[in-house]
Structure formats: C-alpha cells, structure tokens
Automatic annotation (TrEMBL), chains A, B:
Residues 156-165 have a biased composition (Basic and acidic residues). Binds 2 Mg(2+) ion per subunit. The RuvA-RuvB-RuvC complex processes Holliday junction (HJ) DNA during genetic recombination and DNA repair. Endonuclease that resolves HJ intermediates. Cleaves cruciform DNA by making single-stranded nicks across the HJ at symmetrical positions within the homologous arms, yielding a 5'-phosphate and a 3'-hydroxyl group; requires a central core of homology in the junction. The consensus cleavage sequence is 5'-(A/T)TT(C/G)-3'. Cleavage occurs on the 3'-side of the TT dinucleotide at the point of strand exchange. The active site is at residues 7, 67, 139. Its cofactor is Mg(2+). This is Crossover junction endodeoxyribonuclease RuvC. Coiled coil: none annotated. Mg(2+) 2 binds at residue 67. GO terms for molecular function: crossover junction DNA endonuclease activity; DNA binding; magnesium ion binding. Its EC number is 3.1.21.10. It comes from Limibacillus halophilus. Mg(2+) 1 binds at residues 7, 139. The gene is ruvC. NCBIfam families: ruvC (TIGR00228). GO terms for biological process: DNA recombination; DNA repair; SOS response.
C-alpha cells in the first residue's frame, strides 16, 4: 500500500510518499508545494490543489493522511490554515482515495513513541524508519511522519475517527483542562 | 454578466445567481448546498465541491463572489469555516471564473446602504432589488446579497482586494480598536 502524507499550509504544504509492505516501510519521495503569496487567495488554493494533483499523478498513492492541525491563536491564520487543510482533504478524496486525519500528538506518538516529541526527534525517527531517505525540508519530514503514522494506525484510527468523536474537539477539550 | 454568490459553511452553503445588465439586476436562481454531517470531513468537502460544480453547470455564471466571513470565537468552528470557504473559493477559480471576496459589512453597505444592517433588512432589500425573486432561505438570501454586492462593486473592489490589503485583517484590526 502506498500512502501520501500531507502537512497542509497555505504558503507551504509538505508531502511525503511511502510504501507500506506489512510492517516494512520504504521511502518513495517527498517535497513541498508552495503557493505564490502575491496571488489572490482563490488562485493560491488552485495552486495547492494542482500541486497535490501533480504529486498524486506522479506517485499514484492508494491512501492519504492529513494533519488535523490545532487552531492557531490568530483567527485570520486559523481561517487560512482551514482553507489549506480543506484543499488537502478534498483533493485526494475527489480522486477516490481514503483520507485519514491525525492529530500532531498521534503522529509523534506513532513515530517517536511519545506525544511530546520535538520536531528534531520526529525528523530523526523518520530518517531511521525510512533508511536512505533524503528529507528535503521540515514540512516534508512532517508529511513523511504522517504517512508512517497512517501505515501504523490506519485500521484502529479509522474506527476511532469514524466513531463520531471529533479528534480536534477532543484535543481542544484536553487543552482547556490543562 | 451572470454572477454566482456563495455564502460558505460546512453544513450549509447558500448560493444565489443574478444577471447584471448595466445597472439592471435580474434574479436567476437561489438555493442551498448541504453536506451530510454524519459523513467524514473529506467526504463533506467533496459534497460541497460537487454541489457548487452542479450549480455552475446548471446556471453558467461568468464570475463569482464569496463572503470573507469573520472568524468565529471557537477555533474548531473557525477551522471548519475556513475549509468550507476554501472549497467555495477553489471551485469557481478552478473553472476559470474571477472570484471576488467581500466582507459582510461591505455586502450590507452595498445592498442596504449601511454596514450595520440587520439580516432582515438585507433580505428585504434583496427582495426589492430582485423583483419577483422567491428567496428560498436565509443562506441563499445572503448569497444573493453577495452577488448584488459584486455587481455593484466589482471594479473598485477588485482594485481594493488586489492592492495587497487583506480585508479580513483590516476588519479584525477594526474590531480590536472598538
């Protein structure tokens, strides 16, 4: 099974593709899709959509995994993140791919073993889990981590997200409790 | 010129189509696109995208106008609104339509004459500006108001939004000042 991980952002959307053969993981490709921040919003969303389409055409993934980013404190940034995430969810779903959603803490737990891992720890473990992989940048490292997380969790996590509980709401509730 | 107005929401996206012939406005159609709130997020976004595509195929608009909604206080709602708005901006832009973005206060000012008009005043003026129009619901009334606003403002507003100032940031700055 080939998995496309997407770490969405309006300016930079990281992507990473891996093959999961049983428990064996193989790196396929990774990179980043950028949008022109001088272009109008609708045109930037078209650039993201076309960029994801181009990656899917080249890499032919079977399933996709998208980060359920937590909300930013700035409401305008949260809206923009929502837009980029909308495109990252829509584009593979339009092509008929199953799309998994994962919270950053689930990705960290799945890749490093703890939900409170640093970016550097995640990147180091991605490198270790995908020997020979040349990680292009921090965004594509996160996208590869998402793809790994999906390969590890797809069965249990699909049940969980389909069970009606919204992982984002759960995380926000947890955050308020702290 | 035929204008499609879109008032985006994940659960309900209002739409309205008008013809603008010089200063004369003629109602064409209006309605609402809904998504199944029991479906997964990616599938709901596909439903919105396909719904907007179906309206465009049936009505053949030349341009589109989308509401630049202000951020909700709940960050999870803001993310969802961002996703729906992303789809509302992407779908007509993908079809090559110019897409205008308007703040609610600009829409109210354009339709009623004051940026602080009530929903009821907007709906009454939409009814008056589009004689014989049967408004299906509050969401499609807002969408028709957006289409009217675009017909009134497209030249000046395009320059304004293309001038580099982000209307959402401007509005949030205004809100903070109050």
């Amino acid at each position: 099974m080939r998995v496309l991980g997407l770490d969405p952002g309006l300016r930079r959307t990281g992507w990473g593709v891996i093959d999961a053969e049983g428990t064996r993981l193989v790196h396929v490709a990774n990179g980043v899709i950028t949008s022109d921040d001088k272009a109008e919003l609708a045109d930037r969303l078209v650039q993201l959509h076309r960029g994801i389409e181009a990656v899917m055409a080249a890499q032919e993934p079977d399933e996709a995994a998208v980060e359920v980013s937590l909300a930013n404190k700035n409401p305008a940034s949260t809206l923009k993140l929502g837009m980029a995430r909308g495109i990252a969810l829509l584009t593979p779903a339009l092509a008929g791919l199953l799309v998994g959603e994962y919270l950053p803490m689930i990705v960290k737990k799945s890749v490093v073993g703890t939900g409170h891992a640093t970016k550097e720890q995640v990147q180091m473990m991605v490198q270790r889990l995908l020997p020979g992989c040349e990680i292009k940048n921090a965004d594509s490292a996160d996208a590869l981590a998402l793809a790994i997380c999906h390969a590890h969790n797809r069965e249990t996590d699909r049940k969980w997200t389909r069970g009606g509980e919204d992982p984002l709401q759960m995380a926000l509730a947890g955050r308020r409790r702290r």
